[in-house]
User: Fold these one by one.
Assistant:
Number 1:
Amino acid sequence: MTLKTLSIHVAAEFQKHYGRAPRWIVAAPGRVNVIGEHTDYNDGFVLPMAIERYAIMAADSAAAPGKISIYDTQFKESTSVDVSAPVTKGEPKWSNYIRGVLAGFQKRGVTIPALDIAFMSTVPLGGGLSSSAALEVCTATLMEAATGKAIDPIEKALLAQKAEHDFAGVPCGIMDQFISALGREGHLLLLDCRTRQTQLVPMSDPSVELLVVNTNVKHELGSGEYAKRRAECESAAKILGVASLRDATADQLEKAKGKMSEVVYRRARHVIGEIERTTHAAEGIRNSNWPAVGNLMYASHAALRDDYEVSCKELDVVVEIAEDIGYQGGVYGCRMTGGGFGGCCVALVKASDIAAISKKIAADYHMKTGIEATIFASRPAAGATIIKG
Ligand code: GLA
């Protein structure tokens, strides 16, 4: 569904549920990370792009003061949040992404207006495409529309990240919220997670496409393992005597190998290598050097699988199929994307071969795992927008 179709749809749902037209419509995209995985919380580089999948909200001022009503149009579930006092965590679970953002605005001294909201999302849930960041940034964008006060997009991303930390209990880095807030159509975003400086990397060569392959599996250990990886990286940095792994070189790590456990060594090896791969990939994209970018993607996957141990059988199967299709068949590279333990792979492919590649990946993946994959291509989309208001 295009953003236009989606906004017509959510407006109709709002009308049906609340009996009037919405005053505001806002949306924020999910993302796919092309390369730079598990580097954001190590002060490194990431290279995500916003995808044409969105969290979208239609809203209007509500008559009853001090209350926000939220209608989830997909699950036909309604909930409300008391905004007359500091917003706290609550049920249903998904409402915490919204609650966290509202609390963030309250902390900035904003009085939250009473609102009726209808909400939907085309970002697959739990698929590693940042459905939660899209919802958070969408909520923040609605607050901007409804209060008439825009905030700096970097502050907006940080506020959304804090919602994820404090209200969803996930100690995530800054990548997902940044790309959802700052994405630009036709561009990837090279983000320096230390300085928060961003560079737009044009992705306009019509001969290539990025293909998202959703394994449609999610292994539960995800969030506990995420926190564990963060701790292992911090311990590596401490042993190396640096503020974060961004400051360490591969040479330094080799020299200090004896001072750390084999596991911590491998975690650090992935991060140090991945930071370098990410800046090289940005260069490769700028030069349309697709074979080089593809090789960096394969190398990233191997390190995530073997050193960082955040892949899983299904993700590895997709990458193996992509490797089998190979350059001759139109695949330049492929890797898992996002936190890992399920979710999606991203493949860089020749645009002319996209139909055949999708068909082959779907068939082989089903044959090897018994699971149906969901596959789609996306051009780099724009970040959060106020569509009406
Ligand atoms: C999740 C987190 C991000 C990032 C990735 C791994 O998506 O939310 O901050 O750490 O995992 O690159």
Number 2:
Amino acid sequence: MSSTTLTSLASALLSGSVKVVDLTAPLGPDTPVLYLPPQFGKNTPKVAVHTISEYNEDGPFWAWNWLELGEHTGTHFDAPCHWITGKDKENNTTDTIPPQNFVAPVNVIDRSKEAAENPDYLLTVDSIKEWEAEHGAIEAGSWVLMRSDWYKRNGSTETFLNADENGPHSPGPTAEAIQYLISKNIIGWGQETIGTDAGSAGGMNPPFPAHNLMHGAGKYGLASLSNLDQLPPKGAVLIAAPLKLVKGTGSPVRALALIA
Ligand code: 23J
Ligand code: MN
């Protein structure tokens, strides 16, 4: 790569012709967290912020806090070791993933209309192929994100999880769609809902296919993304780096996109 590429990027950032879009939801005690029914075991806690000092007798000139925070909370990254299918993959933890993988091109499939009409909407292989016919092929090494505008519900756990007596209702991919994306050798799959899978995914084959299949292929996930309505279908660059947690299975991220 020539140095002029970076020089022109730097000046484009300064002039504002390249913009930075924040794809991150606010992270705090009100952040919705996943709820799994008892047959699936334990749940992750809500965020808690504990004050150490606040310019007082506990620290006269400074304020600082410590956090109680699940790895899979808010806008977050799923590492391959998160799922049993990815547990023996190379470089499958947040501290061993090559940093080159944290910056990549991004494809955004807008299915917000479909999700508004049907909260159980599932993205299919045919629907991805239609998108490719219109916008161009999904290239190896790129992210694929589904826009659903679901992030607009993240102010409340009830609207975000959207559960009734039959379980949660939120959009996501079919197992076949994930298989297709893996065949394209993408770097990862992400969406705006609480996790990378649909609300109905516990009953799919395999259960939670975005987790099972993507991580089994050594690939990554991004969940609870925001503001995907500000991205073009193609041409943006996604920056999403998890904390370098030792043996981490995932991590909250500040996900950013560069758009021109
Ligand atoms: C554990 C079990 C099921 C799911 C998840 C975690 C997530 O969505 C996650 O945050 O990885 S669906
Ligand atoms: Mn996760």
Number 3:
Amino acid sequence: MLTPTGELITDVRARGGAACAFNVITVEHAEAIVTGAEMAGCPVILQVSENAVRFHHGRLAPIAAAARAVAVAAGVPVALHLDHVESVELLDEAAPNGFGSVMFDASKRPYAENVLATASVVAACHAAGLWVESELGEVGGKDGAHAPGARTDPAEAAAYVAATGVDALAVAVGSSHAMLERTARLDQELIVRLRDAVGVPLVLHGSSGVPDDELTAAVRGGMVKINIGTALNTAFTGAVRATLGDRPDLVDPRRYLTPARSAMADTVAAALRLLSPVLHP
Ligand code: G3H
Ligand code: ZN
């Protein structure tokens, strides 16, 4: 069932847990994420990034409609989130396309500019009924300027949340986007300090590169939304490569998308099952 993100997050947080958010690129991603969530019996967040919208020729509506339809038919609560948005124009499309939340990403901008831009986006999004996440202390990609050494300062984070009115804060604590190996080490002590300082749910980005023990510790320490993207693509592409490698005569995409979708569902279920005891204490 389609559920507003704020409601889903408030619910898991009230139980002392967290929610996982997985990136949707194709309709098979959305189907796999919901199948995996149903296998694990957990609520889940489907998130579409501005990069994914760019891949779909800059059009949000088709992939949003597909994700929304998959969410509506789901047997577990499913929220729709628009992720890593830098374009204010795209934010205007969130509510009309069924999203319950957005992540406005001004993390590359200087602090004062990030505050000003985010405060104005939060006011507009709240008026449209959207839950808003933003980022402080850029979580870079593998070669990002601030990754993986960037850290969010707790005092600055508290001031930022008060000045912007955001509902959740993505923080830099040692993870990095698009890692293919799970070798990231998180600053667990900083997570606890940030949780105590900011008062709003904390969001962990780049979770594909974070090993199991670090992930469970991060949730125990106060992370409330765990973002996972690359791990699904690793599973998807690995299955496609294996299937096509074995069958050079194969042309029907359903033949390789079926194992690819199953591999993603298994990855989702494994992540949710890992975090389940922490997610649903
Ligand atoms: O916002 C999305 C996440 O931060 C995904 O990061 O692809 O490294 O798992 P990841
Ligand atoms: Zn991210």
